[in-house]
UniProtKB/TrEMBL annotation:
Any Gene Ontology CC annotation: cytoplasm
The Prephenate dehydratase domain, residue ranges: 3-182
Keywords: Amino-acid biosynthesis, Aromatic amino acid biosynthesis, Lyase, Phenylalanine biosynthesis
UniProt entry tagged with the keyword Amino-acid biosynthesis: yes
EC numbers, comma separated: 4.2.1.51
Entry keyword Lipoprotein: no
Name the UniProt record assigns to this protein: prephenate dehydratase
Reactions mediated catalytically: prephenate + H(+) = 3-phenylpyruvate + CO2 + H2O
Source organism (scientific name): freshwater metagenome
GO molecular function: prephenate dehydratase activity
PROSITE patterns documented for this protein: ACT (PS51671), PREPHENATE_DEHYDR_1 (PS00857), PREPHENATE_DEHYDR_3 (PS51171)
A GO BP entry: L-phenylalanine biosynthetic process
Length: 308
């Protein structure tokens, strides 16, 4: 039986993503963990076979603990991804009204996605961060907090009521989860794949990032995500976490990786895997030849203290 770790307790969006993992085992065992790092440690030790972790949200951005948990420590690889639409419900103990709510708990990534709704609906309530949205629901059940932002599907698990549903500040918000395993050969290319890397430059110098980007551009590879993360070696010491279109078995990706290896002190390859279907529009913006702004005037306005 395949053992799949997810951020618990039962009733999280991560559990829902884990239930969609494609595996030869049709009846996997889903095992909750209290933190993302505990999931990854269990995978590294062999306690579980797969870990599913939230990696990126379309509103709040990347999940730093997941990025760093994969960038450092014993190597692991991403073999698949799951994208879920995300909206929240306000879960309360039976009989609770909006006027009764003084505290609202949720995972720290949930609050920014519902901030305007909370401000407009229960402006005097205090937000309390929890290890997960389902953990917040469990703490509402115990009486610690008055309400939780979580998936509506978590309500019956904890004997709670849905006081409000479809809560979100941005329509069509999605969260991307990655399926992580111990190092192994990547899935075969599908023609619609993604490769995730962490690049550690030799040093910090003018044009260093440009040199890295040129290796992708020269091979016609589009980057879907690029961000810097601190290495922990001191202020100003950063690595680059990247999602690139394509598969390591593609000739273009192979050439880019060889060029990057010569430029970087180290590269952590985190896998090539099929892209998940997203409900959001995948159409790219048409290329633009210019901004239509007089750059010299714009610069002078900035120098004069104006913010056009």
């Amino acid at each position: 039986m395949t053992r799949i770790a997810y951020l618990g307790p039962a009733g999280t969006f991560t559990e829902r993503a884990a239930s969609q993992v494609q595996d030869a085992d049709t009846d996997p065992e889903l095992i909750p963990f209290h933190t993302v790092l505990a999931e990854l440690d269990a995978l590294r030790s062999g306690e579980v076979d797969v870990a599913v972790v939230a990696f990126e949200n379309s509103v709040e951005g990347s999940v730093a603990i997941s990025l760093d948990g994969l960038a450092f420590g014993e190597p692991l690889v991403i073999t698949d991804e799951v994208v879920l639409p995300v909206s929240f419900a306000l879960l309360v103990r039976p009989g609770t009204t909006l006027a009764d709510i003084k505290t609202v708990a949720a995972h720290s990534h949930a609050e920014p996605q519902c901030r305007n709704w909370l401000k407009a609906t229960i402006p005097d309530a205090t937000f309390e961060p929890s290890a997960s949205n389902a953990d917040a629901a469990r703490e509402v059940q115990s009486g610690r907090w008055d309400a939780a932002l979580a998936g509506a599907f978590a309500a019956p698990r904890y004997g709670l009521e849905v006081l409000a549903d479809e809560i979100h500040d941005v329509e069509g918000a999605e969260t991307r989860f990655v399926v992580v395993r111990r190092p192994q050969a990547p899935p075969v290319p599908t023609g619609s794949d993604k490769t995730t890397l962490v690049l550690f430059p030799h040093d910090d110098h003018p044009g260093g990032l440009l040199e890295i980007l040129a290796e992708f551009a020269n091979q016609g590879i589009n980057l879907e995500r690029l961000e810097s993360r601190p290495t922990g070696d001191g202020l100003g010491q950063y690595c680059f976490s990247i999602d690139a279109e394509g598969h390591i078995n593609d000739e273009a990706m192979g050439a880019a990786l060889m060029g990057l290896r010569a430029l970087c002190a180290d590269i952590r390859y985190l896998g090539s895997y099929p892209k998940a279907h997203s409900t959001a529009s995948s159409e790219r913006r048409a290329p633009r030849t210019g901004s239509g702004v007089d750059s010299a005037i714009w610069l002078e306005q900035l120098r004069q203290g104006h913010t056009p």
